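// run 5 | inverse folding | seed 20
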């Protein structure tokens, strides 16, 4: 009862512990080539360690390893360096605390969370692609105009959530584009990572003791790497989740088509 009060959505550690009671064994990943963006810290690092332990060959694409994915030249170079992979995990993400722009002038969350993931998906062949979205994305309708030109005054939390909504849509659109591959999108709940403590210090302080470990947050990514699931779906704690659970929040077909058009135009 106390846990339900401290963690009403099940996004925290009590929720994970409750949901994990139903989890089975993770599938082995021997022989799988897995690229995880942003695996230098936080959830990506935890996901990489778990994939390594399951026998995968893994690769980190983060600024620490020389890959700034907001730079399209580096994204193209990364695709060329790897040639193809079995699994591509779009984990690198940012919640900016103030308006920042990428080298090509895009707002930073748009550039990293959305544009870079679309480019890498287009340029690097992969049998499976997994986006790490956010529960925050569930609070926003898909709004392409605002996502590409955030209104003033700039609100990083809202802009982050817009891009995370768009990631949920993008996985569905890619599933239609390439029916021979598997595209998934998940959200990790709330995990204690460097990103959360630096971008959301008050939230981080208030949720001490409730946050998941990075390993718990990364669990569904690792599960999806080895699971045989239908394409284009949204997942949380190894279960399919409703992408539109909040009343009034919408994702309309015309907006979805507009999102695809804007991202294709940036290739
Ligand atoms: N933690 C949570 O509770 C939570 C909740 C919902 C969603 N998420 C999502 O989960 C993902 C991981 O979050 P996290 O909390 O682990 O974040 P984090 O601690 O900030 O780690 C982010 C990772 O992304 C990399 N990165 C940042 N900018 C980059 C760039 N321009 N190019 C390439 N890599 C870059 C960072 O490495 P470098 O600094 O070396 O570049 C780091 O490895 C994000 O997509 C986030 O939106 C997290």
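// decoded
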């Amino acid at each position: 009862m106390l846990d339900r009060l401290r963690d009403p959505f099940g996004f925290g550690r009590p929720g994970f512990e409750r949901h994990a009671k139903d989890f089975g064994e993770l599938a082995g990943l021997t022989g799988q080539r897995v690229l995880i963006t942003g695996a230098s810290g936080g959830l990506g690092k935890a996901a990489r360690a778990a994939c390594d332990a399951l026998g995968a060959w893994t690769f980190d694409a983060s600024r620490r390893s020389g890959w700034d994915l907001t730079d399209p030249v580096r994204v193209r170079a990364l695709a060329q360096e790897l040639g193809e992979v079995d699994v591509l995990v779009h984990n690198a993400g940012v919640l900016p605390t103030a308006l920042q722009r990428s080298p090509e002038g895009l707002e930073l969350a748009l550039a990293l969370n959305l544009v870079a993931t679309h480019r890498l998906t287009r340029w690097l062949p992969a049998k499976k692609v997994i986006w790490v979205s956010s529960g925050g994305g569930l609070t926003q309708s898909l709004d392409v105009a605002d996502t590409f030109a955030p209104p003033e005054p700039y609100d990083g939390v809202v802009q982050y959530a817009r891009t995370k909504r768009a990631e949920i849509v993008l996985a569905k659109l890619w599933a239609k584009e390439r029916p021979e591959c598997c595209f998934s999108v998940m959200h990790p709940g709330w995990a204690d990572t460097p990103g959360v403590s630096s971008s959301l210090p008050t939230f981080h302080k208030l949720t001490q003791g409730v946050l998941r470990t990075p390993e718990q947050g990364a669990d569904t990514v690792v599960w999806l790497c080895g699971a045989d699931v239908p394409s284009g779906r949204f997942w949380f704690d190894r279960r399919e989740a409703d992408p539109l659970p909040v009343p009034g929040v919408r994702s309309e077909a015309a907006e979805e088509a507009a999102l695809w058009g804007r991202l294709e135009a940036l290739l």
